[in-house]
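User: Fold both of these, please.

Assistant: Here is the first one.
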Amino acid sequence: MQMLMPEPQIFVERTLALIKPDVIDKEEEIEDLILRSGFLIIQKRKLQLSPEQCSNFYADQYGKLFFPNLTAYMSSGPLVAMVLARHCAVSYWKELLGPSNSIRARRTHPHSLRAIYGTDDLRNALHGSLSISSAEREIRFMFPQVILEPIPAGQNARDYLNLYVKPTLLAGLTALCKEKPADPMSWLADWLIEHNPNKPRLQHQITEEEHQ
């Protein structure tokens, strides 16, 4: 019976996380929980937003009754902005946060971050992007210099794996089998670094003779 292999995919997604001003003293504790939940913190900065910047960041909430209190709260002190990455980062981060109202979170999701660190509906300790598109917009807002390259998916991901990853990995595994080193993991890691097809190379070296 032929074994069906799953199609290759690249599982990487990014989302924005904010540690809000009222829990900034819990920064290290919250970051530890984030890392232990399987996220990678790929960018981080501490900053303080002006009320105008908060208004721009929460522009989709403009006109709601709580909007003035929200901008005042978010500009009341420094906050920590982080770009988190992992498989399905947006949905996993929202699940870890729990409901936006911290009082309700304590009833329905007592182990969520907002239940643990939040106070009420407004002061709910942490922010998370609602969707992939909002995550891209919010990351660009908090990290203006960031370059968000499109993540390969579907056929593009399969083409990338077949063209760049599989040939190099197959050659490395073949060399590993021939070499039979004492520490195969370290040997393979060194081999892949040495034979990285994307390693920058000088296209043309001008020698002294060529100048003459």
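And the second sequence with its predicted structure:
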Amino acid sequence: MPEDHDWEAYKVPPTRTPVSERTTSVPNPVDYFQTAFNYVLDAPVTFVREWIERWQNKNKFYYYHQKFRRVPDLSECLEGDYLCYYEAEAQWRRDRMVDQEIVEIVRERVAACKQREGPNQFQNCAKEMELLAQVTKAYQDRYGDLGYHGNARACLMKQKHRMMEERKAAQ
């Protein structure tokens, strides 16, 4: 194959993009707007975003390992201390979610044991079923009959009433 091509034999097709030809000497205002936008809005935002990303890469924060400090129970809050009420309510909600997950994990273990053991499930899964009974009884004692909209105050009153009934039954 020869090194120099015959340009007349193989003509290059014209480009489809038209070449902009300026007919005026007035500059395009869009160019000024784009430049102003870049320096006024885009550059500072990009700089701040990159700075935050660099800072975050240095200090990794794993949100799924968040640990909350234990706060006083609702019974330990002083009267009129609304911040303490709020913190105790948030703590109660976290505790309830943890207890729900514990019951769910034990329930899944029992289901897996039943699936694995088949017809021998009653004798081979007795420990897991006993644990499930204990966990669900503890959950029911603490959170049962509170409903979806239960709160820390209602739970505390339920525990108080249960303790009073136990004292009456003991006498």
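The chain has five helices and no strands.
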